[in-house]
């Protein structure tokens, strides 16, 4: 008997159902770190400044349904935006699949446990230093992650 191919290896991002698309997110919350863009080169730099709406126990957004209303910079990813995925962190599942790569072994879809993301030090909890309501925007540059 041939084992059924898992959806993230057999489908493109655009072919996934809404629930498959949602399950692809590993919950790392690295996209909740503030980013700075070089206006000349469009290069994106991640900072260790994180959105104040993140729950630091669960690594989840505390206002997920209202996130785009409350935080204008918060981006809701859609399959139509795949060409812009270069700004996502290299470990982001959507970026990996878009680039034709596989998911890491700590991804909840492979491990069967959400906690493996944090245990593998792949979540924002291993990177953030301050919340964005603790410092001024002008100071974000001091927190660029090398
Ligand atoms: S970086 Fe990607 S995988 Fe991680 S929380 Fe954001 S959208 Fe999900
Ligand atoms: S609003 Fe929620 S999802 Fe958006 S950046 Fe903040 S914590 Fe992350």
TrEMBL record:
Family to which this protein belongs: Belongs to the UPF0260 family.
PANTHER family: UPF0260 PROTEIN YCGN
Domain of life: Bacteria
Protein name (database record): UPF0260 protein MED92_01896
Species: Neptuniibacter caesariensis
InterPro entries: Puta_zinc/iron-chelating_dom (IPR005358), UCP006173 (IPR008228)
């Amino acid at each position: 008997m041939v084992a059924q191919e898992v959806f993230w290896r057999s489908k493109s991002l655009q072919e996934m159902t809404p629930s498959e698309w949602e399950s692809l997110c590993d919950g790392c919350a690295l996209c909740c770190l503030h980013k700075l863009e070089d206006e000349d080169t469009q290069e994106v730099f991640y900072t260790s400044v994180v959105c104040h709406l993140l729950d630091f126990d669960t690594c989840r957004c505390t206002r997920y349904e209202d996130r785009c209303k409350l935080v204008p910079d918060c981006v809701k990813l859609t399959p139509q935006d795949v060409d812009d995925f270069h700004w996502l962190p290299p470990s982001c599942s959507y970026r990996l699949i878009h680039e034709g790569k596989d998911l890491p072994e700590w991804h909840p879809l492979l491990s069967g446990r959400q906690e493996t993301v944090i245990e593998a030090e792949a979540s924002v909890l291993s990177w953030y230093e301050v919340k964005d309501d603790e410092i001024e925007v002008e100071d974000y540059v001091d927190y660029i992650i090398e």
